[in-house]
Structures
1.
Amino acid sequence: MLLSKVFGRDEIIASQPVPELAEELRRDTGITVVAGNAEVVRAGAIIFIGVKPGVVLPVIEETAGDLNGKLVVSLAAGIRLEAMEAKASARFMRVMTNTPSAIGRGATAVAPGSRSTREDVSRVLEMFNRIGAAVEAEERHIDAVTALAGSGPAFVYTVIEALARGAEAEGMPHDVALTLATQTALGAAQLAAESGASPDELRRMVITPGGTTAAGLAAMEKLKTSEGLMAAVQAAAARGREMAAS
């Protein structure tokens, strides 16, 4: 958010109880860093909760009095809006983003709570559109968002690695293969984002009947590559539902 100028350094305050990590965060970002959550909650107009899922509700309960009436955005998987709204009278929202947001290429979904206003939704969407692409989603879809956008980069890295290993098996040096595989994935994704064409249309642009691409796709179909990727998203979504129920 600092890189994209969503906020200035003097507009951000964060809590970090470990002194060494607090100093590192202060040094690397130039923001104000304090030891306790209460000071952050009292000072902030918008509160982002960026802790592990199991800590979310205790943090809300601890600061409930100061959270009342404020916009609170949880970045955690598995903790439902209903559970958070039971702990404090804040305007809760859930946001699921992913690690590419660090370079302004994040994929983010925003789920409003029962007290969220349209202004709240617009404001949060604007923030996250500055560091990638953001969409509004119903909370019932957040587990799928977590699987697709949150876990998805790991699946894509696995594809990149596999493409590079295939080239290495044909004798290509590792660094050359990895560079080409990474750039191929990057270029294909950008073309998909900017062309307006569907993945099927883009795929057909590459295929020549009886050619190299057709042979490669036939191997992928034989090994059920598409089914494996679909299963990865579904397994991750199922795990998100289990976390929410526990």
Note: Residues 136 and 229 are 24 Å apart (CA to CA).
2.
Amino acid sequence: MSSVNETHDPSLKSWVESANMPGCDFPIQNLPFAQFKRAGSDENFRGGVAIGNQIIDLARLTALSVFSGKANKAASAGAQSSLNALMAMGRETCSELRLSLSRGLRLDSAEKQQIEQCMVSQNEAEFSLPCVIGDYTDFYTSLHHATSIGKLFRPDNPLLPNYKWVPIGYHGRASSIDVSGQTFHRPIGQLKLPDENKPFLSTTKRLDHELEIGIFIGAGNKLGEPIDIELAENHVFGFCLFNDWSARDIQAWEYQPLGPFLGKSFASTISPWIVTLEALAPYRAPFTRPAEDPQPLVYLTSDSNSASGGIDIKLQVLIQTEKMRNDGLPPEKIADSNFIYSYWTVAQMVTHHTVNGCNLRPGDLLGSGTQSGPLPEQAGSLLELSKGGKQTITLGNGESRTFIEDGDSLIIRGYCQNDSAARIGFGEVSSTVLPAQSS
């Protein structure tokens, strides 16, 4: 697993002044990756690295030959029209680029003048998906979410028998994943009311968000070669924020016997910035299970995973209704949670995904599943916050919600902070619901 090194030193300051401001998501200790171009231009999208309110253009950095060796090769790969080539290089090479960027951005850097020529303001940029997402798997790693949802449908037996033994997941639809700013039409599908004999086609009435972490695969594995849990994090490039939208009424009718389908495939939204796994090293935490719970099978167990498999990522969900936007009101927070509550670690997800020989490829995306905490206000979906639609949520402007309505924007934010490390953030992911096109 990634260890703390000189790039994490909380005393480091950058010559990019905005990176040193309190509360900045992108200080010198972070350095996340994205695909960008100048908004409204005919430029090609290319890789960039965030520092303060600026973006380091990796294409320009490569053209100026600012770095050498592995760092230069990684910068050149990152300068392409997707980050897949950089992801494929693996952790060691990507770490060399991160170290070179960190040194080049410090106050005493000899490379300041060259790197200054590579800067683009984030205010002038637009973003695309950071990579080609070949495959997408959504896990179900929050015990609190699974229990809350289970209680709505199976009060006497909320958790299915396999939940505490196996990291549950399903193969999702990569084609409908888009970057923050995504708008989509309210989906249509088959619904069935409890007192009706047959289903009917209609727009969803129970549109919901899901607070998730997205995990991007770096170096892949060959078909038929499982990834050992001790090596699993070598295959992880980094994390983003992820809103996996759900149509709960469509989902409820269709999910048995084969699981999610049209209730999940109409839209999913990710934040533009990928925070590398290395950047998260100061926020690692032990992974433990209650003594009364089944302990993971041997292939899902390692000393390093037990010592630091957890990651402390603070998460927030906000809503901004159409009326709030029109009235000039900011988004309102409706939930807090934390990735630390995940019942399964990232290493366990990767290992279990490949134990049957499944091959992962650079740019594949794993969703963590809805990240709910143990308290009611830490619920990662409206299905939980509204108790299945039975409890109204009243917003500060007097509006109320049980599920998402047309015109609503959902925003997810995340950051890491503790007393011994610099605060780093993920930016945000936002997306807006449009009315259905037809019914």
Note: The chain has eleven helices and 26 strands.
3.
Amino acid sequence: MAKRKSRVKAPASAPQRGGPSRTLALALAGGSAAVIAAVLIVISVTGGGDKGAEPPLPTTGETQALLGDPGLFDGIPQDGLVLGSPAAPVTMVEYADVQCPYCGEFAGRSLPALLDEYVRPGKVKIEFRGLQFLGPDSEKALRLVLSAAQQDKAWTVLELLFANQGEENKGWVTDALVRQIGEAVAGLDVEQMLAGTNAPAIDALIAKAEAQGQSDGVRGTPTFFVVRKGVPPHQLELGSLDVSAFRPALDAALTP
């Protein structure tokens, strides 16, 4: 399995990312919508090891070295919330909460290999749909990602947020961390990102993802859909976030 690099050096005593591992329920309200001529492969995670609690990131103005690789997506097109070639025949949709430990596990454990095997070759593009049901840090982090999407830097900001994920609702999305992350992303206008977090366009994106999640029957995070026109819907439930669990669904969607 490909491992994430750490171009932003972390101290030797840096804690393991992610909070307590648990099942995350999502209650969404709204209508329903039909999916026309597309394959929808729902990948829901039903298990995972307990990674244990970790000390929260600083809650004052103090800073610490960032974990993660801001260059992970170098050479891969980003268009808003979509990562990968616009011509890719298959789309993998990821519903995630930035505080969700399983979502963080996917980002660190499987995403780098999926990028190398499917996204960089132009086979698959990935669309992020952010949910924010775990608490205030979820919403603050999501708004940053969505604001960065206006500059086509959403996935890079998301990578660093997941890599530095703290314990749920302990105030880990600090102003200091946010600025560190923004300054680590090449080409990102940090002030523009920060100023745009409460824009009406961000509110609309949050509402849109919530409506899509309800329509798709999402009840927890992370949940994935693999979409390709002309292929009958197929649902797949997984008990692992290992990259090998994703390959059969993606390969099947890529088979004519």
Note: The helical segments are 101-109, 111-119, 136-149, 154-163, 175-184, 190-195, 200-215, 243-254.
4.
Amino acid sequence: MSHAELSLPGEFACEEIPILDLGPYLADEAGALERLATELRHAQENVGFYFSVNHGIPRDLIARTHANLVRFFALPDAEKRRH
């Protein structure tokens, strides 16, 4: 597991975000599932979030999904509750 360093002020200046590399798992490398599971558990229990890399999700799908999330959260609360 690697980490990305954040540029945060004060007490958060030394925090790191775990980066989980799904490539070895997707390539069916021996032991990759167990390593990824260990890294994921650590990230979720100790940090609360993480980055995923080499996941194979196309960049355009990520961009469209993000745009739809932005659109949804810009709606008034009453409109969001209808969905």
Note: The beta strands are 2-5, 16-21, 51-53.
